[in-house]
Amino acid sequence: MSMTNDARRRPQGLAAGLLACLALMAATGARADAEPAPAFKLTLGHYHYHYHYSDQGAGTDFNLRWRKGDNSLWLGHYRDPVFGGQARIGGDASLDLGGGWSLQPSLQAATGGFVGGSVNLQWGSQWFGLVGWGRTNLRPYYNLNFDPNDAITLGAGLHDEHGGLWSATWIADDRLHTGQRHLHLSGRWTVAGQRVLVDLLRKTGQGDTGPVRAWGWTLGLDGQTLFLRLARDPKQNFSGSDATRVSLGLRF
């Protein structure tokens, strides 16, 4: 996919902000596995949108998540000049079924009447596979994970002996007949006490402005206390907009 010079632009001051965040993470001496993970995670996100030759402004969101064991609850709020604002709440869990099988349900709701949920069935520990299914009531919802929600999911992965995680996940619309598909190739490993995350995304399908074939990516640095994510999502939510996302988070 070719891109113009304008389409490659980033928000002014982004590089300086990222360097400041990295320096702060180093100064805290956060270590990924030094102690049990805190129960709360606060994430602040900034979304810059670009449509062809014009900038569409920016969106912001916050998300507060509480986690205990394999169960979590979260609430958040998103706003941008075009979509407006939307508050949301949700939860997810992992239920051990025995024999290496687990069931992973999730449920979320948002202002405007949106309700959605999903369920995954996973098998295995070191090597694992999963299959999932999601449904919504199709009410207006600003999708911040950018994967199709009314979809089936197939995945497989490996937890290696060094604590790394490697996986492939395929998510495909099975309701709206758009042919929208996401393929994620992901890796997570530890370097100098910090977890490094890389996710490569291939997306295809019918979008708002025609067929979409594009590559996206996410890079992350994850410490025990602070974490940082930088992502590029072309044709975000299969629209005509390209999105650059920066997220900074705190565990406490």
UniProtKB/TrEMBL annotation:
Domain of life, per lineage: Bacteria
Signal sequence extent: 1-32
UniProt protein name: Cellulose biosynthesis protein BcsS
Annotated keywords: Signal
